[in-house]
Amino acid sequence: MDEYERVLLVKQEVFIYKIPPRTSNRGYRAADWKLDSPDFTGRLRVVTKGSECVLKIEDRNNGELFAKCPVDKYPGIAVESVLDSSRYFVLRIHDDSGHSAFIGIGFADRGDSFDLNVTLQDHFKSMTKEEELEKVWEKEGKKHLDLRFKEGETIKINMNIAKVPGKSRPKSKTQLGSGKTIGLLPPPPGGIKISGLTEPALSSASHLAQTNSNSAANSSPENSELSTEPPTELWGDFASAQVSGSQTDNNSNHGQRSWVQF
User: Fold this and answer.
1) Which of 18, 37, 145, 236 has its CA at a distance of 20 to 30 angstroms from the CA of residue 224?
2) What is the pLDDT of residue 169?
3) In angstroms, rounded to a whole number, what is the distance separating the alpha carbons of residues 57 and 66?
4) Residue 63 has pLDDT above 80, yes or no
5) Dist CA 101 CA 69 (whole Å)
6) C-alpha span between 221 and 97 (Å, rounded)
7) Higher confidence at residue 22 or residue 179?
8) Which residues partner with 49 through β-bridges?
């Protein structure tokens, strides 16, 4: 995985001083430097790349690198505060050949030195937390959570779909043998059941059958040949009809009821 360089802090003005060797273990004092005549004035940048943190002092005009100070921890020997001021620090710089030297830096504004101090502290605090988390993961042997579906694994989703108001379910239909369907229609008005014939319907059917029998008996053969169309009132109001068989059988079997009202 490629690591990118991040710039944590930029200060456009920083003063560089050549400092005398340390004479005791007590620390550095900025009063021993020539504060009114710095040896170089440049720009300071705090840059990180992965776990590496570097302070870079560059030319303010063209950005050319003047010196760099790798920082492995803070506070530490790489960046050290002086004893008599909060605006000055001592840096241990390195060149490409591996040689090191100590220089002094300072800021005109106390807020700039405060920003440098806070930036370095926050960076190394976050690095410490990351290292602790990595140790915990290695100790417990936990892996990253894998949320992918295993082979053959499925999920079930229950969807609660609300009914649309104003819509009703379609009425049931009766299926025919050919696959067609018809609706269930109500019986016609005035109809009667086959198993329970009413007396008015039986009387009307008997009267119509008797009338048709008498008319057939009184008619002459000539009239029968001339008139081939059925009587206009053979079916009437669908309450009765002619009984199958001879006309004489209808008169003799008057008691049998073979027509019903639909």
Assistant:
1) 236
2) 57
3) 5
4) yes
5) 10
6) 146
7) 22
8) 5, 52
* 46, 124 Cβ separation under 8 angstroms: no
pLDDT of residue 134: 74
Please give the pLDDT value at position 23: 75
Let me know how long the chain is.
262
CA–CA dist 124, 118 (Å, integer):
10
Q: State residue 252's pLDDT score.
A: 47
Distance between CA atoms of residues 186 and 213, nearest Å: 35
Q: Say how far apart CA 88 and CA 51 lie, in whole Å.
A: 26
Contacts of 174 (CB under 8 A, 6+ apart): 181, 182, 183, 184
- In the numeric block, the tokens 């009267």 are attached to 207
Q: Map tokens 């009425």 to a residue.
A: 171
Query: Residue 170 has which token pair?
Result: 């379609």
At residue 211, the pLDDT reads 60
Cis check for the bond before 75: say yes or no (omega within 30 of 0).
Answer: yes
Given a contact cutoff of 8 angstroms between Cβ atoms, the answer to whether 101 and 91 are in contact is: no
Q: Please give the average per-residue pLDDT across 61-82, as a whole number.
A: 92
Name the β-bridge partners of 105: 16, 89
